[in-house]
Amino acid sequence: MIGFFIALISGALMSVQGVFNTQVTKSSSIWVASAFVQFTALLVCLGAWLVSDRSSFGALFKVEPKYMLLGGTIGAFITYTVIKSMELLGPARAAMLIVVAQLFIAYVIELLGWFGVEKQPFEWKKAIGMAVAVAGIVIFKWE
User: Are 74 and 97 within one domain?
Assistant: First the structure.
């Protein structure tokens, strides 16, 4: 149950962060805003590490396959695309499309067993759930 609430908090924080970051670009640029976001995230992570974790950064060199270390690089492009989509579509439309894209790609990753994730069998109820989510976007956007 705690995972459920953490996921809800994550979604809420992502939406708020997207709005904040989009507003910051109005006074700077998208890459300045993105760099600031990533830099402040680094500071928070280092602070949390100092207070709670203290595991060795050397362990990063043991990560296999090495492409798994690209999460931060992907994060920079996530920041950029969230800012741009919220700027162009507004927070609600952008968030809906972002969530459906996340859901679709996550399901494909599970189905194909990519990136070390345990392969899962296809389930019609999940495909129908995805279709309902897409229908929700169409209904929400329909004017």
Answer: no
